[in-house]
Amino acid sequence: MASEKAAVQTTEKKENFESVIIRSFLNLEKIDVDLYSRSKMLWQPQGGRAVFGGQVVGQALAAASYSVPSDHNAHSLHCYFLRPGNYKIPILYLVDRTRDGQTYVGRNIKAMQEGQAIFTMQASFKREEKDPFSHQFKMPDVPPPEQCVDLDKLLIKAIGPEKARLYRYGVRHRMPDDVMAIHRRLADKTDYYVTRPSSARRCIWIKAAGHLGDDHKMHQCCAAYMSDAMLLGTATLPYTGSHAEAQEKMFMTSIDHTVWFHSTFRADDWLLYEMESPVCGEGRGYNTGRMWTRDGRLAISVAQEGVVRTRRTDRSTLLTQTADPLTSKSKL
Questions:
Q1: Is the pTM here over 0.90, yes or no?
Q2: Which of 23, 39, 99, 156 is deepest in the core (most CB within 10 A)?
Q3: Residue 332 pLDDT greater than 50, yes or no
Q4: In angstroms, how far apart are the furthest CA atoms of the chain?
């Protein structure tokens, strides 16, 4: 009897958590045909000056997904961040049905605040297709997530439990109940919170918290959200060696963001996020990424350019402690 009650409670908790994610993140309010709004739980990261770009990407993709046939899933999206988003003001998403073909469907999405565009996206959707010709690169050889250390534990080790608690609260205080929280585990041998310069490469196991259901479009929206997390900071590793230190010594914000979906996956299961910054300079950093499923399938490719600008008070210090970003051959 007790086991049956526990099973019911577990099912209810799972369903409730799933409904919270749908309601708070992906289920935009419909204003009119192809016009949607989001006013609650817009997240501005600690130290940031705008709504988290990944959240806008995920919501714009969700808005576009409502207008396409059920048998079409996104295969690519190309985004530009035009103005900082204000988390206190609702975001309007306007979807333009650019093209409806039998195999491919195109959509343009514009995110608006106070009558101005803050973000644009071009997204393309495709009906599933089988073809005998295929190939892909090999997944990096890293330990499985069960053998990797959670980044929260590394944070406690680096700055102590009390400061770590305050840091996590500052990051998440605008996202009730850790909605759309991301689990992250360090997959390579580098220390995520070290302060010495290192090569501009990183591998992180990543997944969305909770159960996301079986709608593949939802998993794509969540993966788009996660793809913007940590990627831009990869460009700063040869100078700071730490994402946390980079936030203090450098100004960073995304300019554009592109995602290609290659195969099906689950965003609530572990994905290996392989990130690299081939070049950074003149106030801009270019970053690329790949997300691999546990069984070695290349599910997602990402490319991003962003503003990476040293704060004036730290320029001389950073120049004297820069590491060589080309210490080893490119893996991407």
A1: no
A2: 156
A3: no
A4: 68
Q: Are 198 and 186 in contact (CB under 8 A)?
A: no
Whose tokens are 């980044």? That residue is 151
Task: With a cut of 50, say whether residue 120 has pLDDT above it.
Answer: yes
* CA neighbor of 268 nearest in space, from 230, 214, 228, 231: 214
Burial grade of 191 (CB within 10 A; 0-12, 13-18, 19 or more)? middle
Give residue 117's pLDDT band: very low, low, confident or very high (50, 70, 90): very high
Q: Which residues are catalytic?
A: 228, 254, 304
**pLDDT-based confidence at residue 252 (cuts at 50, 70, 90):** confident
Compute the average pLDDT of residues 33-60.
Answer: 82
Q: Mean pLDDT across the stretch 228-235?
A: 88
Residue 156: is its pLDDT beyond 70? no
3-class DSSP string for the chain? CHHHHHHHHHHHHHHHHHHHHHHHHHCCEEEECCEEEECCCCCCCCCCCCCCHHHHHHHHHHHHHCCCCCCEEEEEEEEEECCCCCCCCCEEEEEEEEEECCCEEEEEEEEEECCEEEEEEEEEEEECCCCCCCCCCCCCCCCCHHHCEEHHHHHHHHHCHHHHHHHHHHHHCCCHHHCCCEEEEECCCCCCCCCCCCCCEEEEEEEECCCCCCCHHHHHHHHHHHHCCCCHHHHHCCCCCCHHHHHHHEEEEEEEEEEEECCCCCCCCCEEEEEEEEEEECCEEEEEEEEEECCCCEEEEEEEEEEEEECHHHHHHHHHCCCCCCCCCCCC
What's the CA gap between 256 and 265, in Å, rounded? 24
Angle between helices 53-65 and 216-227 (to 10 degrees): 160
pLDDT value, residue 165 = 54
Task: Kindly calculate the radius of gyration of the chain based on its CA atoms and give it in whole angstroms.
Answer: 20
- 181 or 159, higher pLDDT: 181
